[in-house]
Design goal:
By secondary structure, this protein is an alpha/beta fold. The chain is built from twelve helices and ten strands. The strands form three sheets. Strands 6-7-8-9-10 form a five-stranded parallel β-sheet. A three-stranded parallel β-sheet has the order 3-4-5. It has a two-stranded antiparallel ribbon with strand order 1-2. Helix 6 links the parallel strand 6 and strand 7 (177-181).
Length: 349
Amino acid sequence: MYEKDGEKYFVVDGHTHFWDASPENWVKGQEDYAKGWIECFHAYQGLGPAETHWSIQDFQKYSEERMMKDVFEDGHVDVAIFQPTNLRQWYANGFNTTETNGALAEKHPGNFLVNTNWDPRDGDEGLKQLEERARRWNSKGVKLYTAEWYGDSRGWSLKTPEAATYLEKCQELGLKNIHVHKGPTIWPLDKDAFDVSDVDYVATNFPELNFIVEHVGLPRIEDFCFMATQEPNVYAGLSVVVGGLMHARPRFFAKVMGELMFWLGEDKLIFGADYAIWEPKWQVEGFVDWNMPDGEEFGDYAKLTVAQKKKILGLNAARLYDIDVPAELRLDPKTAQPEPAVAEPAPAS
């Protein structure tokens, strides 16, 4: 929980990881890709404040103690949602797996929710394993990586019949929150494999599932906004938006937030710190302090209210994941109605 100026914020970090990218975990013959991947991740950390930067050695593999301190003791997070990324083509034991995340979650009950993942290229055996993981870790969602390499394949699409079979399985298992990485690429993955167009297709076909587009499709922000505004079950995952832009590109950050608020609105934006690329502390504190700048350049966008920030930082994710929010941290229903997302017109002179 974060408190500022007498206001209390229930914080759900919708996008966190516990990874091992140390050289001991690199697949023989794939060392260049494993090394390049984590170095690209590390470069993204440079978009945060200088005092939050880590050495590459610390970044490759961090301890349980460090994560618990950064996320919960210092980072103001009430509940964090693990989003796995396998990358077993480059990392022998996987980069950030459901099993590793789940083991940590079991040691700290109440702190984490454990999402799992799937890849349609795993076929029938993958469906069986998905069911085992979902039941084992009581998952309520999955994280999908459509650009992941698999042998000679360099990605897959949600539009395929094989993907539809897995989405049907998600419905059966109660995996209702489908997080999809659609945004900045990481070397050596292909940027086009993260295109948001396949989300449009499945969001229509599976209206009972929620599709949280992580990183809001950047740099394709307009494609994402125009798609998401017509699909009632598509949400914006703000990992990278806050961590990658709020400090390093504040004017662009304001425009992205303005477009998201205009097209999607305050009820469909989900905060995520993307730990360990960025620590949540400076993101939570900075977002509470932030507001839409003045000036003609930002004149189309309304300023955010405290209630809107409370929804974005935690209450929206709590609603999707059925997380019980303490009564004193909920919004007053009388004042929780959505605010206009556009600025009031200037008075006529």
